Amino acid sequence: MPFVPNPEIGNRIITLMAALVLVLQIAAVGQRGIVSSIRLFAVQSFLLGAIAAVIAYFNQASHIYIAALLTVLLKAGLLPRLLERLMERIGIRREIEPLINVPLSILISGGLTLLGYVVAESFYHPEETSARAALGHNTLAVAIALFLIGFFVMVNRRKALTQVLGLLSLENGLFLAAISLTYGMPLVVEIGIFFDVLVAVLVLGILVFRIGETFDSMDVSKLRKLRE
Amino acid sequence: MYILSVNTGFALSVAAYAVGAFGSLACWQKPSLARRICCNFALTGAVLGGLISVLAILRGTPVAWSVPSGIPLFAYSFSYDALAGFFNLALAILVAAVSTYSFGYLKEFEGKRNIGLFGFLFNLLLLSLTVVFTAANAFLFLIAWEVMALAAYGLVIFYHEDRETRRAGLLYVIMAHIDAGCLLLGFALLINSTGSAEFASFRPLSAQLNGGQQTAAFVLFFLGFTIKAGVIPFHIWLPAAHPVAPSNVSALLSGIVIKTGIYGMARIFLDVLGGVPSWAGLLVLIVGVVSAVLGVLYALMEHDLKRLLAYHSIENIGIILMGLGAALIFRVAGHPTLAAVALIAAMFHTLNHAIFKCLLFLGAGSVLHSTGTRNMEEMGGLIRPMPVTAFCFLIGAVAISGLPPLNGFVSEWLTYQALLAGFGAIPGLTRILFPLAGSMLALTGALAAACFVKAFAITFLALPRGAESRNVHEAPRAMLIGMGGLTLACAVLGLGVTWFLPVFDAMTEQLLGQRVSSHLVSGHGLVLSAGVRTSGTVSPLVIAVGLLVLMLPAALLVAIGVRSFGRKRGPVWDCGLPGLSEENEYTATAFSKALRMIFAVLYKPRREIQAVFDVSPYFPKEIRFESEIEPTFEKRLYAPLQEFLFRVSSRMRTIQAGSIHAYLAYIFVTLVLLLLFGVRK
Amino acid sequence: MVNVAAFAILLGLAAVLVARVLRSGPFSLWDGFFYADALSALVVLLSAFVSLVCSIYAVGYFRREESSGVLQEAKEVGGRFAVDKLREYYALMPFLVFAMTLVALANNLGILWVAVEGTTLASVFLVTFYGRDTSLEAGWKYAIIGGVGLSMALFGTILTYYSAYGALGTDTLAGLNWSVLAENAAQFDKPTMRLAFILILLGYGTKAGIAPMHTWKPDAYSEAPIPGAAMLATGVLNCALYGLVRFYILTSKCLGPQFGSRILILFGLLSMGVAVPFILVQKNFRRLLAYSSIDHSGIMLLALGFGGPLGILGMLLHMTFHSVTKPLLFFCAGNVQQHLNTDLFRKAKGGLIHSMPLTGAAFLLVTLAVTGSPPFSFFQSEFTILRAGFARDHFVLAIFFVSFLVLVFSGFLVHVTGLVLGENPGLPAADTCRWKKYSVAGLAILIVVMGFWIPAPLFTLIKGAVGIVVGG
Amino acid sequence: MIEVLINSTLQLVLLLLVAPLVSGTIKTLKARLQMRRGPGILQSYRDILKLLRKGMVIPETASWIFSAAPYMVFGTATMVGLMIPMTTTHAPFSLFGGVLAVVYLLALGRFFLALGGLDTGSSFGGLGSSREMTISAIAEPAMMLAIFTVALGANSTNLSEMAKVAVGQSWRFLAPSQMLAFAALFIVLIAETGRIPVDNPATHLELTMIHEAMILEYSGPYLALIEWGASIKQLVLMTLLVNTFFPFGLSSDWTLQTIGVGLTFYLAKLLVLACLVVLVETSNAKLRLFRVPELLMVAFILGALALISTFLF
């Protein structure tokens, strides 16, 4: 009789990690430097991978291991590299000034987290997923919050690169939601999605690169030629 | 008796138009061939169509048939009844004249303009017109309706190089689209309550519609049809668009195209809906009065011959609406025979106006053709170089002024009788409206007479005022034949009205279940009588003959006088200052001066006089005088509307300011809101 | 050239597919990886048609571009040679088309999402094709907004999966398969489905250019090369709407039609209303086209919202006509732009009919057609939609609908007549290139014909699709 | 048929004879009232005869319209004269045209006369035509309203019918509606026949003149026709007034004696009306042209009131 994992512990761990992820996200909102936000993103993605692994471990859902592995490799490993490389290639300046000042934006992200909880409340039904349940609720809320905050980051930040980061963290939110709700999508879909994310980042990277060399500034709020 | 059945005949005439359209388009590189194809096939179609309409009217019973369309949603279904027959008859008469006229008129296009295209649009217009009059299915009706508008648009902007023309065309087609929209809504309303687009399926409907739906349906259709008919205040496109088109097209536009609005009202209000509430009838009557009076008043101030005619179309549509409104009211009030008389008045005036307005536009066309200007102040003395045109125009002028013994008089007389009868028939205070409307009709008639005195005299009489009208020539024969036919029609419909009346029996029976022509004729078929309630009578024929007879003794006296005491030509009395020249002539502006002063409230005239002085202010070297009236509706109603639209639109443009953050923010906010919306049940 | 052939074959295949579907109902391949019913067959058919037409036109278009040296300009900026640019285009196109086909044929809603994302990624480089700074800007906006939108769509898909999860239990491969979901959509978890639908609407709505997610459209359409823009405006639009419709079916099965239709009507009218002012006052005729397609997607959404057999029929008819008509509009605009080297009304003197009679005539024709005036085919669909609206007693909405249509008509006509008509500015004669001529003339004829005749099989196909959506 | 012919010839003769007499009488009475001797009653006959026996000068600028106008004026006036009951309730042509025909026939004559005025190219003619058409145009509605009031009472627009009904109730003219209608029609009569205060028939070459300016270029027999026609028109309008409002002496059958009675009554009534006209003409000054509309507006209001009062009382 092998060691039977105790769901309770699992839930604790996952909730803790999820909380951490959320904290990281909010930190990213407050973060000024690009490099450090990339780092933050890397750590966050790593945590997600870990969450996935934990879930896989506690539910003997083998295919989630793959998802976890992919996450760690892609989001925690490959993408940050790429982005940093890109950053060096363009050699952009450090400081980035958000449209909304830091305290306020942190406040807003708090509000968004709240919204996340409200939304999660509205449709989360423990009884349906009885045994594995408990991890759902908080995690789901966190996922939604991640999504919204990522979106907010995209609205808020001026630099092309940080918008990409926002998009990526938003994707993280989706990933978290996916695994915490349904233990991942069917494998084909998972792989497809990962592939897409990868390509998307490549495409965006190329664009960022070109913008960088065309406008010698990464400030996308300066891109206002096309208007009525 | 019936050589060919109605529907095959109809198909043939449609086919003729179609061949004319595509044939002339096909050989657009050979102008003269294209011209022949265009005119010949139009003529053929007209002859066939006329034949069929006569057949249908004689037979009386409607012929309905249906053609499978390529669109699975709908079938093309037609119904050729008396009403359709009547309007097709009018169409046929006009087209016959106009296409004959065009043989000569289009010659000048050769080498200059694309006659193939013209022929295509021209025949397409005719085709859509006859389909509009015959369609028995909302879908088909709307398609034909809009094709008609688009073809007309194409013809209006035929001289699209001219900026004014383009603007006029746009105004026209946009208004046309608005009215199509109204009809679309109206039909959708009806279709929704029956589930079928067939007119036949609407007929039983009138009972089921609740008050709100009835009102909505009436308002929508009324809007749609009045816009098309160019009724004030929806008229602004008409005086803009009709003058700029080639004259043979203007003749059709004013002659028959705006009448589709009248047709629509008759078809929907009387036939399909089977009557409307009495307030609606009153509305029609009042709108008619307003647009008759205002139309003629605006016409008086015009010095552009074709614009003047266009405004008279507005006026006459008003007169027609008086009759129609009376018919609607009587029908609701339960006086079918009276309604029939009123309807006959309206329809007869429709036909008459079609004929003489077409005639006048063709006349204006040949004047334009030889002088090259539309401005009356440049014309004058044309009666000598172009006598035939002048004569035709004179007849048209007498007819449109409603003077006896021509057709205009007869239909206005019938309208008077209908209105007078209304006073006796309708209870309550509203009855006062009828004689008042009658007096306004009198005002309209008199003003129209004044206006056409101006139009004819300034154009054709006295000395040429401008270089354009100095050395001009008579129009080619084909054009004269076209006009001559219509002139004859004016006389025949006036003098022979008593023999023509039975034509209306089938229609009145179909729409009101009454055959009244026998009531309307008395005195050995010579006398037209008001029929039922009031017993007024008139006999244009006797009047005409009588006039001739009575002129004989006068002529005799004059002849004697002239024989014994001679007659010589002398100079005009020039107050002793020798050298009376065209500068001394009375101008159109001067002629309308008195009325401009009297109705200053309406016109808000603006005049400026600049005098250039030489030595002392008492001897001005030259004086420039210019005067213009305020286009009230354009200025007060439409301009602000457009202004508003554009201001709002320019405001809106700030939402597309190019900032990606703003764009993302839109989505973000929408998302948050919708999430909240989704959360609360 | 190769593309033309390839897409011709594709069209043939699509026709075969349609025939098969018509003959023997829906079927699936590769143990349910591919799935085709009338709806997807219709979309595939349209995509194939559009891509064929566009590729034919593209040949002429790019020859002109090469000769006029626009691509050489692009070289300096993009840092690549003209030929490479062409190669790039001809390489991207098949990807795009492949993705579009996959969207329609994928059984798994996840794969559907992947494919839609694929269309975005393939078309980003179409937008940045000319490598101008403006096109980069457009590309960036397109990519970012599209990315956000699609991630919302993905979220929606996940939630759908979750709401089905309760009902189906198993998380097999088939867990997101349409063929499975469609059967037992009724037992889905309702609140989740509601959220899912909202997210899906926003997501695929972004792709379809529904206001207020439409903002990328004018930029992208005015920057992409004409054939690409035409593809975006028709094929990709269809794909997005297709996805939306699929989820709409699930939602209305799960929650009943009311919930979805209210939001759809809201957004549909909003899009039409947003498009109108920009059409009325517009300086740039390629942006004009973009707003027109926003207007049209609004109309289709509205039709979907009105629902009922009539509404859906109206929507699918509209989709069909739109895919046939819109390309011509783009081609005419393209010819004009290449002729004048500008896309601003201000710089165009008017009177194009003299120098380019065919394009001018076609432009007027297609303007009338696209603004839905009879006898052109849009009138049929819009009439049907109006009836649907009345059937649901949306009287006021119907009035709004019609007045928007009228306004759009006016705006379009004012602009286009100003461009096409007028006295001859004395430009050299254009309309020489055969490829362009044939594609324009052919489409023009097709449009006129479709106004009076719809091939019976096509109509039965549409009917079938309606049956699927209404849930017959 | 024969009967109609006889009647019409008789009435025609009556018209042609009485019309100049009436205008002559008016002239004389006016002169007397102004303490002048004035011309004799028969002066108008002399004028016409004189004119008929003069040669005429036609302006070089004129076309055939100029020559057609006099015939039209004369023809329409006499035609109208045949439609209106004079001595008996039965007018020979009443069947062929009622009051509407009367109004429109007069309009026809005016139409051609105005054309004739413009045809010469002289400013006087234009001025006259313009004013003539204007004033008649704004006189029309008032006239129609007043006539309608009577016609609606008689339920017919035929003058004989109206006369018959009137004979039935001789004292009807005391009804307010009739009074008002009469007043309105009287004003219209003044305007239509070109009398002070609207127009001054006695002036020449003044810028105030209307009718005279229009016919300035006519001479000889043409002028005779026009003058004669004008006087007939005046007679017709006066007859309209007297016979529809005061139907005394109108007989419905044809015996010499009734005709005699009718004729005497008729002339007497005409005389009274003539006196009325003369009084108005002498006691008023000519109005400015742009004051005339106000006068006619008054007439219109009177007509409207008449109409309303028909079914109030």
Characterization of this structure:
The complex is a heterotetramer of chains A (about 230), B (about 675), C (about 475) and D (about 325). Chain A is about 75% helix and about 0% strand. Chain A is mainly alpha-helical and about 230 residues long. Chain A has one domain (about 5-220). Among the domains of chain B are: about 275-515, no CATH class; about 595-630, no CATH class; about 630-680, no CATH class. In chain B, about 70% of the residues lie in helices and about 5% in strands. Chain B has helices at about 5-25, 30-60, 80-105, 115-135, 140-155, 165-195, 200, 205-210, 210-230, 235-245, 245-255, 260-270, 280-300, 305-335, 335-370, 385-400, 405-425, 435-460, 475-495, 495-500, 505-510, 515-520, 540-565, 590, 595-600, 600-605, 630-650, 660-680, and strands spanning about 65-70, 75-80, 520, 525-530, 535-540, 565-570, 605-615, 620-630. In chain B, a hairpin with a 4-residue loop joins strand 3 and strand 4. In chain B, helix 17 runs antiparallel to helix 18. Chain D is about 70% helix and about 0% strand. Chain D contains eleven helices and one strand, in the order ααβααααααααα. Chain D has helices spanning about 1-35, 45-50, 65-85, 100-120, 125-155, 160-170, 175-190, 210-215, 220-245, 255-285, 290-310; one strand at about 55-60. In chain D, about 65% of the residues are buried. Chains in contact: A-B, A-C, B-C, B-D. At the B-C interface, helix 5, helix 6, helix 27 and helix 28 of B face helix 6, helix 8, helix 11, helix 16 and helix 17 of C. Strand 6 of chain B pairs parallel with strand 1 (about 55-60) of chain D.
Describe the secondary-structure layout.
The complex is a heterotetramer of chains A (228), B (681), C (472) and D (313).
Chain A lengths: L6 H24 L3 H26 L2 H29 L11 H22 L11 H22 L3 H23 L4 H29 L13
Helix pairs in contact in A: 1-2, 1-4, 1-5, 2-3, 2-6, 3-7, 4-5, 5-6, 6-7
Chain C lengths: L1 H23 L2 E3 L4 E3 L1 H31 L1 H9 L3 H24 L3 H19 L5 H36 L9 H6 L6 H19 L7 H8 L2 H30 L1 H24 L4 H22 L1 H33 L11 H4 L1 H14 L7 H14 L3 H26 L13 H19 L3 H15 L2
Antiparallel strand pairs in C: 1-2
Chain D lengths: L1 H32 L9 H10 L3 E4 L4 H20 L15 H21 L3 H32 L4 H10 L7 H17 L18 H4 L5 H26 L10 H28 L8 H21 L1
Offer a few descriptive terms.
heterotetramer, A: 228 residues, mainly alpha, 7 helices, 77% helix, globular, D: 313 residues
Brief summary:
Chain B has 681 residues and is mainly α. Helix content of chain B is 69%, strand content 6%.
